[in-house]
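Form 7-S
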Amino acid sequence: MPAKRPAAVATLQIDNDRVIVTEWRFAAGAETGWHRHAYDYIVIPGMDGKLLLETNDGEHLAELRAGQSYYRNAGVEHNVVNANAFEFSFVEVELR
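Output:
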């Protein structure tokens, strides 16, 4: 059985009737754990790096660039893993 990965650290910055803003910090190899997004969301990477996205359809390696945001619809289900040998962070904005 593979070793358990460390958990990513979520820091809630804003939670109101319009948005939820969370900073995510991942040690090398850390993961969010499997989750389903209840809201549409935007991710704003804080640095260049790679994230491994584990989904029901398999794995996908995403290359992110600092400040280059992306958007996803509600309903996405996945586990996000830091595929870098260094700490990685991004800000997630969920739209209520």
